[in-house]
Amino acid sequence: MEQAYATVFAGMTRQGPGSERSTRKALSLLPPLPDTGTVLDLGCGTGASTLVVADVLDRPVLASDVNPASLETLHQRARTAGLKNRITTSIASADATGQPDDSAALIWCEGAIFTVGVEAGLKHWHSLLKRGGVVAFTEMCWFGTERPADAAAFLLGCYPPMTDAASLLSLCFACGYRLEAMFALPEADWWDEYLAQIVPAIERYRGNPDPDIQSVIAICDQELDICRRFGAAYGYVFVILSKV
Ligand SMILES: C[S@@+](CC[C@H](N)C(=O)[O-])C[C@H]1O[C@@H](n2cnc3c(N)ncnc32)[C@H](O)[C@@H]1O
Question: What GO MF terms are annotated (predicted)?
Answer without folding.
Answer: methyltransferase activity
